[in-house]
Design a protein that fits this description.
Length: about 230
């Protein structure tokens, strides 16, 4: 797939013409990261936005106690690292690959002149930042008001909506390899607590667990667990 075709499917650049996308593509640089590689750390100086061509990237922060907390996952056609691109400030979170990932990078010194030349990009930026804010607000509410059973249920439902694959009458499989430790970082809980919750949900027929694969068997049952 050409870089222009990739850009055409990125919400941030949806308002640009093909000619403008061609100019933008000329400013991009490809980068490939192996599975488990740190792309950047929180607090590091950021001068690039990343567009995912293939693979998945997890955004995370560290609590004061040093516990890792997952914030979001991005996949093909999505962007991350945009805040530092806009304000030139240090990274607000870290980013690590979940699998081999190919990105296209756009550096700040190339982006700012493009923004002035193509003001329609501003609308895409507003939409992306608004979506980020809504997601962060909902995530914070879940962490603040739900118990661990509710937080796990809410996260599984969200991941099923974003990465679910229907399995012919056998539920929705989340197309991510999730260890209990990784899921714990999503819900600000210990691995032991998450293990207990998953066991309970499995025993009640709400989910199926096969190694690192989780399948939603009873969506309505999980939804009933998400109560403030």
């Amino acid at each position: 797939m050409s870089q222009v075709s990739i850009l055409r499917n990125v919400a941030l650049f949806a308002g640009l013409s093909d000619e403008e996308l061609e100019v933008l593509a000329g400013c991009l640089g490809p980068r490939t990261f192996g599975k488990g590689m740190i792309i950047f750390h929180k607090g590091g100086m950021g001068q690039s936005l990343y567009i995912i061509e293939s693979g998945k990237v997890r955004i995370f922060i560290l609590s004061e106690s040093g516990q890792e907390i997952s914030v979001n996952i991005y996949g093909p056609g999505e962007v991350f690292g945009e805040l530092s691109l806009l304000d030139g400030q240090p990274r607000s979170a870290g980013a690590v690959t979940l699998e081999k990932t190919v990105t296209l990078t756009l550096r700040r010194e190339a982006f700012l002149p493009l923004l002035e030349a193509y003001p329609r990009m501003a609308r895409g930026i507003i939409e992306v930042l608004s979506a980020r804010l809504r997601y962060t607000t909902a995530h914070a509410e879940n962490l603040s008001f739900l118990d661990v059973y509710g937080r796990v249920a809410a996260k599984l439902l969200e991941l099923a909506d974003r990465y679910g694959v229907e399995k012919q009458g056998e539920g929705i499989e989340i197309d991510l390899r999730l260890t209990q430790a990784e899921l714990a970082t999503w819900v600000a809980a210990t691995r032991e607590s998450v293990n207990k919750v998953l066991g309970t949900y499995r025993d009640h027929g709400l989910i199926g667990v096969d190694g690192q694969r989780i399948t939603i068997l009873d969506r309505q049952g999980l939804e009933r667990r998400v109560l403030y």
